[in-house]
Records
---
Amino acid sequence: MTISEVSQKYGITTDTLRYYERIGLIPPVPRRKNGIRDYDEKACNWVSLVKCMRSAGVQIEPLIEYVALVQADKGMERRKNILLEQRAKLLAQAEQLRTTIELLNYKIEHYEEWLPKNK
Amino acid sequence: MTISEVSQKYGITTDTLRYYERIGLIPPVPRRKNGIRDYDEKACNWVSLVKCMRSAGVQIEPLIEYVALVQADKGMERRKNILLEQRAKLLAQAEQLRTTIELLNYKIEHYEEWLPKNK
DNA sequence: GTATCAGATTAAGTTTACTTTAAGTCAATG
DNA sequence: CATTGACTTAAAGTAAACTTAATCTGATAC
């Protein structure tokens, strides 16, 4: 799979895909002889994982550490801890989101009452 | 209320409070004769609102527009739309968060199974 | 009365996460 | 066989949201 196909499939620009690889957010992608990237299933799965994490707002730094540990096939405890830490953050974020959505619901209702009367 | 009291109350640095005011994210705060800010209840409520929105990830730009409209006491329709737009974004974000938390749950479980056996 | 400390302003600097630019390679098409 | 278009790298640039630095003012502590 070429980089532009992967780009299309996951909605990530080719620039960003190369950037992710360069900084170690995804492991090195297999290449053809001429140096052109040829994403296999494993590489795609990494892209998919990173896309999921990033669009939830997981930071790049901890992900880089995680990816490096998986590559080196070590640090199982540490890897689990990274996942636990990130999940904790996302849970807190979800809670904050809930609160703010409630507030917005309340405010929007207020406008709903007000607008028909005065318009 | 002084700026440092407000800072403590909401967990926002004084620098950030001044920054927010400067860019119009909160309306001008009342001052004492010597120019020192004296937050009244209204000002505090703005801080509280902005804190809530910002910690949920609502962008500054739309909030500035919203605050300006409220200040000018106009654009009710537009104001409501801003709130609707932001709520829609937060709902989408909440959904993405849910997906990613699920994925993390799954992965963490996997480590939970694996670790006791091999450690 | 002078030192220190909260508060003020303006402008420049920082961080995170990309994005764009510059410059080059290579395969295929007209 | 030149040109088009996708691919490559390295380095510089950008956007959003603060943060820090430099400098100043005025009130209270010793």
---
Amino acid sequence: MKKELSPSFLHLTAAQARTLAKNMPPEEVLYELADLYKMFADSTRVRILSALQAQELCVLDLAALLGVSQSALSHQLRILKQAKLVKSQREGKIIFYSLADSHVESIFKQGLDHVRE
Amino acid sequence: MKKELSPSFLHLTAAQARTLAKNMPPEEVLYELADLYKMFADSTRVRILSALQAQELCVLDLAALLGVSQSALSHQLRILKQAKLVKSQREGKIIFYSLADSHVESIFKQGLDHVRE
DNA sequence: AATATATATGAACACTTGTTCATATATTAA
DNA sequence: TTAATATATGAACAAGTGTTCATATATATT
């Protein structure tokens, strides 16, 4: 029995290609996944998340701790907040930021395991 | 006993700041971590990794499967290979790509868990 | 009310990144 | 050797991103 080879594939039968595509997460999910990882793909944001993992902090303390300008930090915090990785809580003049999600920690650790291997 | 407040911090004592900094992974590791996540921060690369998770594939099949140009794919494969997330194996004219590292899968799954929550 | 403090934001800019196009390299077939 | 196939790569370009600078907003203090 001759294998039915789709004209566009080299080694995959059309059936195999379909099965493969079906077993992959939907495109839309993969796009969201890339967007999630974009949040961790900048060293400033990674350092922010790493610090907030230890304890909640206000903007100026974070800035001092990381050696980043207040403005740059504020911009990044906004991005992290929109992505719902970080939340804020006002106490008078000061706003405290903390991790919004326990998943952040596990994603973080997974990555560290790989980097340290 | 008065708290010794470092002039540069608002709510952190100098001691707290030191402890916090000490408990964070070293800067250099955080930079590597960001670089690792950069690999997952592009939808084309995520889709490549997702496909290779199912099975090893040659460049043209991958291109057809994902609907990406051969050139674009080749460029991305080079990037993934340099990052040691992917490896290649030649068989005559054809080069098969596969995941280089089992960590890739776990990083992937962790992210999916978060996206799907 | 005026001032000081803490944070946010818009615009501009430099830098990075992913794709395309054209072409190069490598292997196989004729 | 020549032609065909599979993959790689350099240059150019468009789009995206992170920072800075100046300024705005919000709260507290005097």
---
Amino acid sequence: MELDERKMTILRAIIQNYLETGEPVGSRTISKYTDLNLSSATIRNEMSDLEEMGYIIQPHTSAGRIPSDKGYRLYVDMLMADKQNEMESLKLQLNAKSERLDSILKEAAKVIAVNTNYASMITAPRYHRHRIKFLQLTQVDPDSLLTVVILEGNIVKNNLIHVDEELSKETMLKLNLMLNTFLQGLDLAEINASVMQKMRNEAGVYSALISDILDVIATSLESEEVEAYTSGSTNIFKYPELNDSAKASTLLSALEEKKELTDLMYQEGDSDRGIQVYIGDESPIEATKDCSVVTATYHIEEGVYGKIGIIGPRRMDYEKVVGTLRNLMEELDSIFRKDK
Amino acid sequence: MELDERKMTILRAIIQNYLETGEPVGSRTISKYTDLNLSSATIRNEMSDLEEMGYIIQPHTSAGRIPSDKGYRLYVDMLMADKQNEMESLKLQLNAKSERLDSILKEAAKVIAVNTNYASMITAPRYHRHRIKFLQLTQVDPDSLLTVVILEGNIVKNNLIHVDEELSKETMLKLNLMLNTFLQGLDLAEINASVMQKMRNEAGVYSALISDILDVIATSLESEEVEAYTSGSTNIFKYPELNDSAKASTLLSALEEKKELTDLMYQEGDSDRGIQVYIGDESPIEATKDCSVVTATYHIEEGVYGKIGIIGPRRMDYEKVVGTLRNLMEELDSIFRKDK
DNA sequence: TATTAGCACTCAGTAATACCGAGTGCTAAC
DNA sequence: GTTAGCACTCGGTATTACTGAGTGCTAATA
């Protein structure tokens, strides 16, 4: 059977109607809803075909139809194909100049959640692709050193290290010089055994200290846990199909734990620029089998990026969501460009 | 009417039973449950008295009794009075030495949530009481300076400042010296106009820069938003009395927003060492009117402390919760002592 | 051949009803 | 002061009937 023009129109009408109401839609509704001027009986025949083709589902014998995952997929693909779905620009209520990364991200998550009425999540840019731009070791106390690492993209990380003896000014200068000479411009992955060995040799008496320092730097950069912020998680209560305690609970757990969701967001083509949509069972993680998840990527600079995700019911307003995400991506891109 | 020994015993029995089951408890249950050897009829008479006195409530004519807020309050006060409710020590699964403040806190919140089966929340220690221990300004780029502020308690804050021109080594040394001379040992509140004016005078050509720096330091320290971490928020679904979407939603919103809850935790006697219990309507905030909230204080050092809160149903296992909190407080205290 | 009107049928949701049982208050007896 | 007994209350559940939205199919129509 072929999916001709008319069937497409009817399918789209069914989906759009269902997106609005969340109720199964019947033939009579479609007959009035569209400008096809067809009777409900004709629509019924077509719907019967569409069901056979797997695009729609009848929850029970005497009910209307709802879109299947396959139906949503077709709909979303059509949406994504016609690129001109521009939305009115949403303004982030943040003045980026003095704000810090984390508050920008929190704000962005909130804006998304409020705008779409779904739950949102945003991850901080991943660090392990960053190169080290600048290192600094400072004596704070007689028994503690402060290490500051600045990465490209101006991400600052710091740590305190305990030492047994106070170090002289000259030693500090020497260590600082050495750290910068050896490590500047390197990626975490590039700090391998041979670099570390060279540094330890150079450090002489302080080779143990250097080991400690490298250790701390490594763990602080590695920090496998991606920082992530969520917002609007209670929005899920707005959708009756998610609003039962079992579903809500697993979903909220996932939003609280974050780990699984960040994995999902980062999973495909790491440097992907596009927008990814997971509809229901398409999602590889259990917690969102009853939802749809839309993810997008924002860029801070070359090779450094974070992800934004929206989690809502299957009957998500994909058009709006995709528009909003496109928008926010640009907004964030420009904020970070300016900031640089 | 007097609250004699027997009435107390019966009240306690009612409360304990209700804590376990969550169902109204009847006279027959109590008659068997206690070792008073009284018939259900006698218990009924006593219950009738207890109701008149306001300690218990009958949800409807033909139901058993449940504790009123006043009843809980009496029970909790009795609990708190006998100090010897020590719990087995709960071990935090964290090796504090290389861990950073935020992961310790997150872990603590999680431990609490898992141990108690309620939702938990923990705030980072408040900064504005901190004295500045050490300041450092570093040129990172030709056009950006890094400021690092270390506060007593070894809390590190940093920020990048944009500058128009590269500064000479000597200038940097001078500025650093000056910042430390003027600001070391000061509280944020003590950095007043007169100190700032003196510094600007001293700074000469760089007075504008100094203003900028002070500004950034101030806003970064001030950061009115207290950092807070929650855990186990989905535990609330375990209690039928909270498990309806309206209640769950407001509660989860509060846990997500955090602001209101941190206010609650910090509200009474700021330096209070004790444990505070808000039962139902006793709570000043709307979101927790159907819950009980127990808060405690942990200390990092002199005058610097954070809060831990547990949010659960009215029929919370107060004994366990108070024990767990006492325990965690000590655990945290010792971790931070050691760390110092 | 495609469309439509008409009709019998299905089935979730809701309202009405009856029933059960846990629990009470009260009275009279111990 | 305590207890046994009994009538009464009332939330919860199961049963039943009813309603209405929606379908599939058939026969008539353009």
---
Amino acid sequence: MNAPDVALICRALGDTNRLQIVELLTHGEQCTCVLLEHFSITQPTLTHHMRVLTECGLLKSRKEGRNTYYSLNCETMSDFREFIAGLVCGK
Amino acid sequence: MNAPDVALICRALGDTNRLQIVELLTHGEQCTCVLLEHFSITQPTLTHHMRVLTECGLLKSRKEGRNTYYSLNCETMSDFREFIAGLVCGK
DNA sequence: ATAACACATAGATTGCTGTCAATGAAAATT
DNA sequence: AATTTTCATTGACAGCAATCTATGTGTTAT
């Protein structure tokens, strides 16, 4: 994973709401309606955040009936963790 | 380290130039003048980026003569790495 | 003292971002 | 078929952020 991709992900995680969304999704996929209960934002704003997180590759989405389920993209998350893990002092 | 602090750091790392600055500083402290050679931005813009990185706790600075030397704040970096390392699928 | 150097600060501008209300679209329910 | 539910899209707005030029400040060299 190269620097521009990482910067894009960091920018996505640079919003408190989005960071909390990712934290919630570490426990498994969730639909928008359930996620919405955890925040004090409107549904369009949440959908906007989900879009940002999806476009940088962090999330996957799956439609089932009238629900949309979001989950972490494990591969991207793994690559990102690896990059950050490499940012050590005195390399 | 709590979520708001992490979000602040992520936002700081969400700029390609700043991410590269942090990568450069993993090899040790550097003064502004040397860092500037790696980028195609003006000196005030670089100083602005150093300020952002310092204010979120990622960098430390030290003045020696007419030079300012920047280095990673190892403790903050460590806490941040640990937080990101905890963002795993299927927790 | 004067000049040169390294960096910070101020002010302006342009573009992006988080948020909302309003609306659209597709599926399930009645 | 009509209504309800769930989510996406649109358009707007206020605030922030990246960048620049111009200038200020402290330090070293001449």
